[in-house]
Amino acid sequence: MTTAVVVGSGPNGLAAAVTLAADGVDVTVLEASDSIGGGTRSGEVTLPGLLHDHCSGFHPLAVDNAFSRQFDLAAHGLRWRHAPVQYTHPLDDGRGAAVWQSVDQTADALGDDGASYRRMFAALAPRFPAIADEFLQPMVHVPRHPLALARFGAYAALPAALLARRWRTPETRALFAGAAAHTFHPLTTPLSSAIGIAMATSAHRWGWPVAQGGSVAITRAMASLLTSYGGAIETGVTVRDHRDLDRPDILMLDTTPSAAADILGATQPPRISKAYRRFRHGPAAFQVSFAVDDGIPWEHRPSRSAATVHVGGTLDEVVAAERAVWDGTMPARPFVLVGQQSVADPDRAVDGVHPVDTYAHVPAGWSGDATEIITAQIERFAPGFRQRIRATHVQSVRGLEGSNANYVAGDIVGGACTPRQLVFRPRVTLRPYFTGAPGAYLCSASAPPGAGAHGMAGWNAARAALTDLARTRR
């Protein structure tokens, strides 16, 4: 029987394991931590009963993709929940902008920018499943939907700071800047619009849902599915050398490229090992979880109905902050992502106290404490927030890296989203999952299509492994 070992149990490692096990492979997942899930873990970190997501909190691209279409995670307990508003971007004096799942409702609320917004997203949203199928795989491939991809690509190729200026009002420009800032990269560079366009369009097609009961529900559903296929999971097992394993037919590495190179050692060709060690990681996140009485009192009223709020001020402020972080300077007012998951999943709140998960973009390896900076940024747009805080839990950059070896210097997205690494990751090759070592594949967020709890890097890598295995056995 074909055997496989998967090193790492993040959503990509579990997706790879499920895909292999469904094909009849005998799969064992090895996880260094005492719990599985990687970026899809949840727990009570502030007050008893308040459930916080440790990293990934909303999951638009996990709703409908090749992996989710093949495997019924709902049958294993996964339920998606949506807030009335998908995401918002507040500005000073109660101003701001919001995205509803309806393109028309969003456009109607944008005033003078409504017509331009509608032209863009009314054309992209109906075609987004086909577009997403194209970019949730290696970028270099023969597209099945070239026309839809070309329209998306015409926007995606532009610098986000430039594309945002197609709109005239500060509110709409800031709204797009907030979505684009998920790239953790300067918004003045080519291709920096790609993630912003993808995230915005996904909000109109599928919304930005949260997992009922926390992101850990994704982990539990995948683990349940894996065991139903006969797969096994072992925790507390650190793999440092492939020779410590029992010569599996397939080795899947849900790790960083440099960690993969360490594990594979001399079995990996030197030129590939060198490329893996040159892989560039991006800026860091600094996380603060809050327990908040009655939720955050945003002056911008739609922000009270959104599970995700982007805090960063105007387009120019977001652009300047992201550039500073990339250059290694901590901005006084960083971009902060605020997760109010209890707006979509009310059972996460307890007796009127709501869990709020935030992270600020900070320089890689930053050693400071951003708790007060994050608090002040939220207070700026929600006066009275500070007085509502009942408890906090801080995860510094160093703490993040210590909690998950894949978060190198606090990089939670699996690698810098430079133009080169958006197209070619982890190295320039037409076989991005193959490590060069026989039977070994990289299946982490450092492989295409990058970060997210959608599992597509794992699904793609597992399918590549099965294809190669079948070819060698002919």
Automatic annotation (TrEMBL):
Annotated SUPFAM superfamilies: FAD/NAD(P)-binding domain (SSF51905)
Superkingdom field: Bacteria
Gene3D superfamilies named in the record: FAD/NAD(P)-binding domain (3.50.50.60)
Cited InterPro entries: FAD/NAD-bd_sf (IPR036188)
Protein name: NAD(P)/FAD-dependent oxidoreductase
